[in-house]
Amino acid sequence: MCGKQPSKGRLHDIIRCIEMLKSVEVQFRMKRGIINQWVIVINRYTAEIIDQVIVKGMHEIGKMKEKGQFYEDMMFLLETIYMSHQGGSNFMRTTVINHAFNLMAEQVFTSKELSEVRCLNQRLEMISNWETIIKKSTRCRFVYWIRSLFPFIFDMIMSDVKRPN
Fold this sequence. Notes:
There is one protein chain. By secondary structure, this protein is mainly α. The protein has one domain. The chain is 74% helix and 0% strand. Helix 4 packs antiparallel against helix 5. The mean pLDDT is 80.
């Protein structure tokens, strides 16, 4: 379908899909307060799971018999990760956390625990940026590139007297 204009029979369906996308955006905007309350709850729950894994790693490090440079480095990384999670989720904190986990040795966490924490961090990032994701998903910029839609859109706008636009 790339490079081809849609058939005139499909134009009405395309317009309806655009209207549905925009109505989804409006519903999300109207329910922003309730969604943000749930986002806070989900973020707290997810951060608590991550904190439990980090505390477990701190206990593993605490069991080490030799408390040399490796011990100090790992404890510093774990404390950095733990403190970064306490302030919420944003780009800078996520970057610090990811770099700290990349430096973390496998003697502290198993590969399963590391992948679980990375997955939970991605979840935190997605949930925290839900408004941006919705805006990007419902912006309908593709309409401007389908010139064959213009006459149909203008005709629909002019013929519908009940619509304020």
